[in-house]
């Protein structure tokens, strides 16, 4: 499936790249030399291996992951599928790790409600005894 970058997201990316370029030595420090392998495209954006670079500035990375997670073509994709869908167009350092973390936090089955968490006066967790059952 071929995906294209929506103009609204692309504008946010270009603005974030512009802001990141104003931070002194930010790309060089964060990218460990990979910034020298980036090309500036005719749209003014920085690309790494034909994928647009998504800086940490702003909330663009989360927006991209939110859109990918909510798309009707990827009904709650796993982290690997989501990464493979996004890696053709976008790039940032630690992208696969960030997507895996996002997927972990987005999975409602892994969340524990606040009512289920019990702490004592010293804010230590109170563990409830677990009954161990024999297998038959």
TrEMBL record:
Q: What range(s) does the Integrase zinc-binding domain occupy?
A: 60-102
A UniProt-annotated Pfam family:
Integrase_H2C2
InterPro entries, from UniProt? Integrase_H2C2
Any idea which GO molecular function terms this record carries? RNA-directed DNA polymerase activity
Keywords of the record: Nucleotidyltransferase, RNA-directed DNA polymerase, Transferase
Keyword check for Transferase, yes or no.
yes
Indicate yes or no for the key word Nuclease: no
Tell me which domain of life the UniProt entry assigns to the organism this sequence originates from.
Answer: Eukaryota
Q: Name it.
A: Putative reverse transcriptase domain-containing protein
Which species?
Tanacetum cinerariifolium (Dalmatian daisy)
């Amino acid at each position: 499936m071929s995906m294209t970058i929506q103009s609204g997201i692309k504008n946010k990316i270009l603005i974030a790249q512009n802001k990141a370029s104003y931070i002194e030595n930010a790309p060089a420090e964060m990218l460990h030399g990979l910034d020298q392998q980036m090309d500036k495209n005719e749209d003014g954006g920085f690309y790494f291996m034909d994928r647009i670079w998504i800086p940490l500035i702003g909330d663009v990375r989360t927006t991209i992951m939110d859109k990918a997670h909510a798309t009707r073509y990827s009904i709650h994709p796993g982290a690997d599928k989501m990464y493979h869908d996004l890696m053709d167009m976008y790039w940032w350092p630690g992208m696969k790790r960030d997507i895996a973390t996002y997927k972990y936090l987005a999975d409602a089955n892994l969340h524990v409600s606040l009512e289920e968490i019990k702490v004592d006066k010293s804010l230590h967790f109170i563990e409830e005894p677990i009954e161990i059952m024999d297998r038959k």
